[in-house]
Amino acid sequence: MNQMLAPPKIEIIPQSAPFSEAQRSWLNGFFAGLLSTDGTKPLSAEQGAAVLQGPPVAGDDGEAPWHDQTMPIGDRMKLAEGRPLRRRMMAAMAQQDCGQCGYNCNDYSEAIADKAEARLNLCVPGGKETARMLKALHEELQKEPASRGAGAALSPATGDPAVGAEPGRSRDHPISATFISRRLLNKAGSQKETWHIDFDLSGCGLDYVVGDSFGVFARNELGLVDQIIALLGASHTAEVKGKTLREVLTEDVSLSPAPDTLFELLSFITGGAQREKARALAQGEDPDGDAARLDVMAALQKFSGVRPHPEAFVETLEPLQPRLYSISSSHNATPGKLSLTVDCVRYLVGKRKRLGVASTFLAERITPGEQVKVYVQKAHGFALPQDPKTPIIMIGPGTGVAPFRAFLLDRNATGAPGKNWLFFGHQRSDCDFFYSDELNAMKWTGLLARLSLAWSRDGDKKFYVQDRMREVGRDLWNWVAEGAHVYICGDAKRMAKDVERALVDIVAQFGARSTDEAVLFVGELKKKGRFQQDVY
Known about the structure:
The protein is of the alpha/beta class. It folds into five domains: 1-41, no CATH class; 55-141, no CATH class; 175-214 and 322-377, Elongation Factor Tu (Ef-tu), domain 3, CATH 2.40.30.10; 222-316, CATH 1.20.990.10; 392-535, Rossmann fold (3-Layer(aba) Sandwich). It has 20 helices and 15 strands. Strands 6-3-10-1-2-7 form a six-stranded antiparallel β-sheet, covered by helices on one side. Strands 13-12-11-14-15 form a five-stranded parallel β-sheet, with helices on both faces. A two-stranded antiparallel ribbon has the order 4-5. Helix 17 (465-471) runs parallel beside helix 19 (495-510).
């Protein structure tokens, strides 16, 4: 008897969707049957996603099913196959709409596609993967005519060229603000190092609204700069681009990760096996299994004895990008003052300590009274409700609490009557409870109607904010049913995905809906601006 071959497994619902494995498997089967083209042959995942998105809108090519911060770049590019070049460029972006590049993801891709933006390395969250993909797509672009003409004035970030030109309102037009102070938020015993940072904006006249982000132009650590100069065998005072080599390496260029162009240069000035190895690295290959760990200094050490000319060396390096942080203060509460909540990044690669450029700059290298180049990045779809009576639910573990501290301070300053509920979590309650005095006082006064806490290292079993959400799911659903807006801030790859999955489960359980109905409900919350995310 002939056996029937099992049909191929169809993956229409992506791994990043907020379902359990069993739910995702069922939905894949359901949609595979629903979207069958001839009654027997199901659509591919990409075709299914396209159908679910609906037909293209006139003048466009449909929505972007890849606009998901948790989706790997390979999956995004697969979903974008067959789309216009500008859409494939968008799929290469990090999908965070963070504004760090000076645009949102869609506008950055449009600017490149219209040949109005030549820089392909501005997507900081996307890193090398995005830059390499954009470079490949840009080669296709060179064969196409510009649709708006080279140099078309596409607006960075906001859609208004005048706003982009206003000092302090974009990365291309920063302004100087005064650093006031820092204080450590962790107590003894913590495995983390998180700082509250204050800036004085009164001298520059810059203001902001809660939900906005703050761009900081940091400087590289001098010890690292001097070690690189020593590896080059050059003088600190060698002139490069009208500055000393030390000034350029400190203020103007990124020293991590090592760019492909640096390896190209190294391949030109060396030979033999070293040349082949440098060529491989320049093409994105990993001959020794260490490519991901190579910053500029490690690259020079790997090709020790190869000493490029300082000017040629600097030309291969990427510009030092500003870093964006969620603002954790309210202009209405403390006019002229701006606060940040910053995790300090320090880690070991082998025996060498690596430092986060901006976080350690703010945590230890800048002194009170010093001027720093900064700008305010306007938020896109992350703001308090227009009606101050609307209740809000805020979910922000770790430094994700930053914008919610701002929300609470702002609602207090403006007398907004809407109820406020905060979910906060971290590792340990005794040393990682940021702003504990403030938050407990807000609870005591009634500004915080509820404060739900989750500590992942206090017990034998790890316990996160999404676990706390499920514990109080009935109450959370009641708030949502009453019209509450839901906000998430924090890690895009894990936390945000887990929180959204918990919200779907809560809607299904306490809102008497099936899983797919709950997914649609949460999707409607997003469309209506009632579910907003600031993730990174």
